[in-house]
Amino acid sequence: MAAVSDFGRLNGADRIPRPFLIGVAGGTASGKSTVCSKITQLLGQSEVETRQRQVVIVSQDSFYRELNAEEKEMAAAGTFNFDHPSAFDLQQMIQTMTLVAEGKTVEIPNYDYILNARLPSKQKVYPADVVLFEGILVFYFPELRDMFHMKLFVDTDPDTRLSRRVLRDTKERGRDLDQILNMYTSHVKPAFEEFCLPTKKYADVIIPRGADNTVAIDLIVQHIQELLRPSNRDTTRRLRHHSDSGSFASRPH
Ligand SMILES: Nc1ncnc2c1ncn2[C@@H]1O[C@H](COP(=O)(O)OP(=O)(O)O)[C@@H](O)[C@H]1O
Ligand SMILES: Nc1ccn([C@@H]2O[C@H](COP(=O)(O)O)[C@@H](O)[C@H]2O)c(=O)n1
């Protein structure tokens, strides 16, 4: 695993005014959150107090839109399609991520999968050097996709994803097996194939087997450390500026 190296030196006046934005896409339960946590941990950030963190994780799920009465009933019955792009509040997601990209402090909704709704409380996201934005459709919307300086796609076998989703949703999201399987066959799988999987082509790095792939995660961490090392700041700024015209991360062939 990568050593923490001099990443910890980025603070105060040395801090980059605009964060390095990394998009992390992949199917449901592919391990997106786990990969982000591992990256954060390897960059020596998991023990750091929230306000001081140089690496933060934002979830696209925070931007699920509010549902109307009829949609709420469907969601409670497990028939609402949460895997369709229209399930997200695109405008709020873009506005918030634009502010994050400008290095501003933002407040994002806390989403509750049991209530299928946002909670009244919000979470503050403070400026950081690296922001990981993870979700099933983070590469789907061009306005969002174009904001990322690096794009990762977590590629985990569908059977593994379904079995993990069953375990997770029964334990953590208040679902029963029938509902999970019905939702999976009617919405989750078809939407994955239509909207998520085609975005894999935008990835700079594809991570087969998700968080089990320690070699890939280690290489990504080393790459981030290299880009953010104080001696490389000028090059990094230039690369960020030109990130539309091509990526500096290795592309899959
Ligand atoms: N490599 C792994 N081995 C075993 N379980 C894993 C692994 N990666 C993730 N999980 C578990 O699978 C579930 C989904 O993982 P998560 O990272 O939340 O996926 P995603 O963010 O893509 O939905 C969680 O319960 C998590 O603990
Ligand atoms: N109320 C909701 C909202 C979303 N989902 C499912 O969550 C999945 C996305 O989150 P992952 O952590 O799995 O990437 C997506 O597939 C939705 O079906 C839900 O079950 N309930």
Structure description:
This protein is an alpha/beta fold and 253 residues long. It folds into 2 domains: 1-56 and 150-234, 3-Layer(aba) Sandwich (Rossmann fold); 62-125, no CATH class. It has helices at residues 32-42, 69-77, 90-101, 142-145, 158-172, 177-196, 214-228, 233-241, and strands at 20-26, 55-59, 106-112, 117-125, 130-134, 150-155, 205-208. Residues 1-13 and 238-253 have low confidence and may be disordered. The ligand Nc1ccn([C@@H]2O[C@H](COP(=O)(O)O)[C@@H](O)[C@H]2O)c(=O)n1 is lined by residues 28-29, 32, 61, 64, 75, 82-83, 113, 116, 136, 173, 188.
Fraction of helical residues? 25-40%
Mean pLDDT: 88
User: How much strand?
Assistant: 15-25%
CATH superfamily of the largest domain: P-loop containing nucleotide triphosphate hydrolases
Report a brief summary of the structure:
The protein has 253 residues and is an alpha/beta fold. 38% of the residues lie in helices and 17% in strands.
Set out the fold topology.
Layout: E1 20-26, H1 32-42, E2 55-59, H2 69-77, H3 90-101, E3 106-112, E4 117-125, E5 130-134, H4 142-145, E6 150-155, H5 158-172, H6 177-196, E7 205-208, H7 214-228, H8 233-241
Helix pairs in contact: 1-7, 5-6
The structure holds adenosine-5'-diphosphate (ADP) and the ligand Nc1ccn([C@@H]2O[C@H](COP(=O)(O)O)[C@@H](O)[C@H]2O)c(=O)n1.
What are the main properties of this structure?
7 strands, 253 residues, 17% strand, globular, kinase, transferase, disordered N terminus, uridine kinase activity, 2 domains, binds the ligand Nc1ccn([C@@H]2O[C@H](COP(=O)(O)O)[C@@H](O)[C@H]2O)c(=O)n1, PRK/URK, five-stranded parallel β-sheet, two-stranded antiparallel ribbon, binds adenosine-5'-diphosphate
